[in-house]
Write a structure and sequence with these properties.
Elements: H1 17-22, E1 26-28, H2 30-35, E2 42-45, H3 46-53, H4 64-81, E3 88-95, E4 103-115, E5 118-126
């Protein structure tokens, strides 16, 4: 399909996942996701990583690998509980971003094409207000 065949007209601009990773807007966590039992490539948005994987300053007894594991494990659980063929699911988990009690947070896992020219399924985990 070329630009002339598109019902939307000429493509003005594209931004690939590869570019988003290079620019730091997405983080590839596929290897860790495989260890958690997720078969597709998995990516976190920078906002998810900064909010729920990276350890906030002054927070004790936390480790980023454990926080990443929690996000991925709960994503796997949400996938297992989802309706067949669902391409967007809510992922709930408890995260401690201070030195008090953990709080429930909701993320969204979206299954879509790996990249612009690669229809391989991939999962992107993002905040509910991200697109």
């Amino acid at each position: 399909m070329n630009d002339q065949d598109s019902p939307f007209g000429k493509i003005i601009y594209t931004y690939s996942r590869k570019q988003a990773i290079a620019d730091g807007f997405q983080i590839d966590v596929t290897e860790s996701a495989r260890q958690a039992g997720i078969k597709f490539p998995v990516f976190l948005t920078r906002a998810v990583y900064d909010s729920y994987v990276a350890i906030p300053p002054g927070v004790f007894d936390q480790e980023w690998r454990g926080r990443l594991w929690d996000v991925l494990w709960m994503t796997r659980h949400a996938i297992q509980q989802a309706e067949p063929a669902a391409d967007r699911i809510v992922v709930e988990l408890f995260v401690r971003n201070d030195n008090r009690k953990p709080r429930l947070v909701k993320l969204v896992a979206v299954c879509s094409a790996l990249d612009i020219n690669d229809a391989t399924p991939a999962i992107t985990i993002l905040l509910p207000d991200e697109d």
